[in-house]
Amino acid sequence: MSEGLDLEAVLPQLMRLGTVFNRSQLVERAMAQVGLPVDRPGLTVLITLRMAGQPLRVGEIAARMQVAGPHVTRHLHDLERADLVRRVVDPDDQRARLVELTDAGDGAAGRYLGAVLGWFTGVVEEWSEEDRDAFGRLLGRFVADLQTRIEELD
Amino acid sequence: MSEGLDLEAVLPQLMRLGTVFNRSQLVERAMAQVGLPVDRPGLTVLITLRMAGQPLRVGEIAARMQVAGPHVTRHLHDLERADLVRRVVDPDDQRARLVELTDAGDGAAGRYLGAVLGWFTGVVEEWSEEDRDAFGRLLGRFVADLQTRIEELD
DNA sequence: TATTGTTATACTCTATAACTATA
DNA sequence: TATAGTTATAGAGTATAACAATA
Lengths: 154, 154
Hints:
The first copy, chain A, is mainly alpha-helical. Chain A has helices at 2-23, 26-34, 40-52, 58-65, 69-81, 103-124, 129-152, and strands spanning 56-57, 85-89, 97-101. Chain A has a three-stranded antiparallel β-sheet.
């Protein structure tokens, strides 16, 4: 059962990774780089919009964040008041609203992502190129296979 | 900048992994295998005790879970009422309490871990042995380097 | 009648502060 | 006086239900 041993080693590592992410103030430190008083879910909205590269409807933001709609609505209020996003009526459907980043909002999201990216660069910069490539490949595959398996359970 | 490209690919994967973990009801599904009405933090207490392999003090459980003390105290109440843990006075220090799993508690934690482990087995069982080994090695290294870097920031 | 979004409310998880008992 | 744990309170994040407006 050498298989079993491999997996029993991986599982605690994944749990540890989750702990490191959630509790080590990685997020808080990167948010400090943003230089604006945005809370965590608000920042997630900004990142979602920046990664989309285009204005999104409220429901679409909620879907991409995998949260319920009202949660997005609530934080859009704060973001709009801070002039980080704009809400405009969707010309194709008067019921819907398109949310777009202001320049300030786009800059904030960019600074956050840049900080996190620079941080990961530091973590693996002493790795060999082979190891970096292999890690990227295997991690991508793992996440994809995991997601497939989850969807199969439904 | 081939480095940059590698990292920019890894970062979204990690974010995606976090999302999959937190929102895909992986935890809820595994908890269903437990067959007992234990909530999530309560289950974390049971897992912590099982992985320790010995009774732990309340403060030690909180440290391993990386949460504040009162959080553990609160859930120990429910767990004790459900007969999943026992609290006994530490013979070495009358102030402290040792928390130990009952047979039912140990079984519950075991069933949960077995479900998750079996699930991961399914995800990577079609991988080559080389890929599995490499993934385990690189993931472990990544988490360790990440933690080191975080500690350096303090 | 179905869908988009909002408002109002409630629940889960975790933190901080104040307190008790033992050292 | 310091430490282990508990009780009480507060906050962040997210969900559900009820509602409004448009399709």
